[in-house]
Amino acid sequence: MVQIDLAGGECLDVCHIIGVSPRWVLLAVRDPGSHQGGMAIEIVPYELIRRVSIRTRRAEAGSIGFAEARPPEIIAAETLVRAAMLPDERGE
User: Across 1-92, where does the E strand assignment appear?
Assistant: First the structure.
């Protein structure tokens, strides 16, 4: 279980890391508003991250870490910013 505490007090329950850039991380997180275990995507600037907690769900669980089969993609910061813009801000 990976949780990220943000400067504003919010805690993100991370499913997986979609991509990283020099200034941002793109995360798939559990959506607290979803009753069916849905996910949301968050673009988080590194300066907002206050703590990262990594825990096993059970005492007898195996190793802690990220799946090597799903490495995060390196994404240019400009790509993340553009993806976060509304269509009219992108000139579409």
Answer: 2-6, 11-20, 24-30, 39-45, 49-54, 73-74
Q: Are 77 and 24 in contact (CB under 8 A)?
A: yes
Whole-prediction pTM: 0.61
Alpha carbons 44 and 82: distance in angstroms, whole number? 14
Q: Which residue has the tokens 């195996």?
A: 62
Pair 68, 46: CB distance under 8 Å: no
- Token digits of residue 21: 């850039």
Q: Convert the pLDDT of each residue in 55-75 to its tens digit.
A: 876 655 555 566 667 677 777
CB 11 within 8 A of CB 3: yes
